[in-house]
From TrEMBL:
Gene3D superfamilies: Acetyl-CoA hydrolase/transferase C-terminal domain, Glutaconate Coenzyme A-transferase
Name listed for the protein in its UniProt record: Acyl-CoA hydrolase
Biological processes, Gene Ontology terms: acetate metabolic process
Keyword line: Hydrolase
Originating species: Williamsia limnetica
Length: 396
């Protein structure tokens, strides 16, 4: 059973013209979405800031707010962005704290927390929520009895926390990874590129999960999202140290494993390029499209935004900078019958070409480091088997 407070405390924290941020991830506080919407409509003029919603935020009526912004439209906010109910701010995850301090300063942060002996901490994720607290937001807290206690760092400031509800429902579960022959070939080609003992980041989805499942060398995990497969990695004796992450993205066994482990950190730490690039670091990410120069689009197609920049650019830049590491983009050569190598991206550049080191497809891989622009274009064309693209590159 899930319940929120009966005395409607949340509504007392809102005023016309204020900005409310809602904690994101699988632990987003759904229990008070309806109450928040009703209170915002009654007060009027309330602005809303959202992050990564893995599923559609049911009960959250976006029309009740004067303005809605999101820093990550995928996955659950795709329709809201397409329908014009929410504005997508194209920003890297590492830049969100600065945005919160300098431009969109929340007055209230609605978040799920867990109680400790001395106070409260964030629950299933920290993400950019610490930035909102540091910027002075009052925390409208929903205490969870089913979320893990796995946040590193200090407790939330007691004088900023107001308990507005509680829940005994666990955070949402990441859907199980689906594999197919193409994904299996991609993972197999990635395995030789992961050195023993390196720090590794993988993007969300089936490829990252399969890569972790098939690793045969010990690694450290330093990744924005922590999937279930980390538990298996630990059980196989291949996990070095405690993982570093800002979102739990798994199911019950991941949450049980994470209980009592200080694995969750704010994005100011997890996505800090200087920290990430201090030691050998390998980042494995994918793309919607790769253009002939090696530029990456992860936002969507010409007709729809369905992803977001997120930590893609942060991790790619860090891995491209580190000595002994590399930024890898792994992508199938086609999607829905169309080539993923394009002459011009459907959307603005998400990650620049100079932050892409190795590109892997089911056909093979190519190391772009040290190549000039013409050589890069020719190498990508050869990898995709696009003879026409290679001919254009040579003629330039």
């Amino acid at each position: 059973m899930t319940h929120s407070s009966d005395d409607r405390v949340l509504g007392t924290l809102l005023r016309s013209g204020c900005t409310v941020a809602v904690g994101d991830g699988f632990g987003t506080p759904q229990v008070v979405f309806e109450e928040l919407s009703e209170a915002a409509r009654a007060v009027g003029g309330v602005r809303l800031l959202l992050g990564w919603m893995p599923a559609e935020p049911r009960g959250l009526d976006l029309t009740a707010f004067a303005d809605v912004r999101t820093v990550m439209p995928g996955w659950g906010l795709r329709k809201a962005v397409a329908d014009g109910l929410a504005h997508f701010v194209p920003i890297r995850l590492s830049q969100v704290p600065a945005l919160i301090h300098n431009v969109i300063r929340p007055d209230v942060l609605v978040a799920t927390v867990v109680a400790t002996g001395g106070g409260h901490t964030f629950a299933n994720e920290i993400s950019w929520q610490k930035a909102a607290v540091d910027a002075g937001a009052r925390v409208a807290a929903i205490t969870s009895s089913a979320a893990p206690m796995c946040a590193a760092g200090a407790l939330l400031p007691a004088d900023q926390v107001v308990i507005v509800g509680s829940t005994d429902q666990p955070p949402g579960d990441m859907p199980g990874a689906r594999t197919d022959p193409i994904t299996e070939r991609l993972a197999a080609r990635l395995l030789p590129l992961i050195p023993e003992g390196t720090r590794l980041q993988v993007g969300p989805g089936s490829l990252g999960s399969l890569l972790l499942s098939t690793l045969t060398v010990p690694v450290r995990i330093d990744s924005g999202l922590l999937p279930d497969e980390v538990v298996d990695l630990d059980n196989r004796g291949l996990l070095l140290g405690e993982p570093v992450t800002t979102y739990l993205a798994g199911g019950p066994r991941l949450r049980e494993w994470a209980e009592g482990r200080p694995v969750l950190h704010p994005v100011e730490y997890t996505h800090d390029v200087s920290r990430l690039s201090a030691d050998p670091f390998v980042a494995v990410n994918t793309a919607v499209e790769v253009d002939v120069h090696g530029q990456i689009n992860v936002e969507g197609t010409a007709t729809a935004v369905f992803g977001g920049i997120g930590g893609h650019g942060d991790y790619a830049a860090a891995a491209a900078t580190t000595v002994g590491g590399v930024s890898i983009i792994a992508v199938s050569t086609t999607h829905n019958g169309a080539s993923t190598l394009v002459s011009s991206l459907s959307r603005p550049v998400s990650t620049p070409a100079h932050d892409v080191g190795i590109v892997v497809t089911e056909r093979g891989s190519v190391d772009l480091r040290g190549l000039d622009r013409t050589e890069r274009t020719a190498a990508l064309a050869d990898l995709w088997g696009e003879a026409g693209v290679r001919k254009q590159a040579i003629e330039r």
